[in-house]
Amino acid sequence: MHIARHATWAWRPAQEEGSRRDSRPVTSRDDIARGESVTRDRDNDVENDILRGKVRSAIEHNLADKGMKEVSDGEDADFLVDFHIAVRRRNMTVERVYPGAYPGLVCGPFGCYSGWGWGPAAVGYEHIRFREGTIVLDVVQNPANHLVYRAVGEKPVRRDTFSFSQDEINGLVHHLLKDLKTSK
What we know:
This protein is of the alpha/beta class. The chain is 17% helix and 46% strand. The protein has a domain at 3-14 and 32-91 and 131-183: Double Stranded RNA Binding Domain (2-Layer Sandwich), CATH 3.30.160.670.
């Protein structure tokens, strides 16, 4: 569905517990660890609020670049926008295999020359910690409550950092919204 340029949008209001279709708590029996050790502690609220603020800012900027206008009242908006994020910290042990070949000087019965030497292969194990995240972005047509656009994205694993920069989030949101077309 093409969305008219200069269409209005607002943040979708949070649903109240009683207004949900089925307000029973969901308990999953799935084994999310898949044989890996997974820390079950969720990020603290401060980190989640900072991340949500970065995602919110990126969505506002990208929708403005597409020509859509944000309004404060959801009743007056043509579309309602909502997103959900989940971030978890993970620990994993990975195997590192170092082959037995190495560059250098090789000497034999006919003299020395530059080439590859051979030795025993080395195997090591490394314990790594990283974060992975998933974001779901929905655009819903207002008053009909019809889902017109949904994008799901996953953040690639980065072992060298434990936070998401604004540039990384801007790139992810831009990628999520690349198929959302606005027309005149």
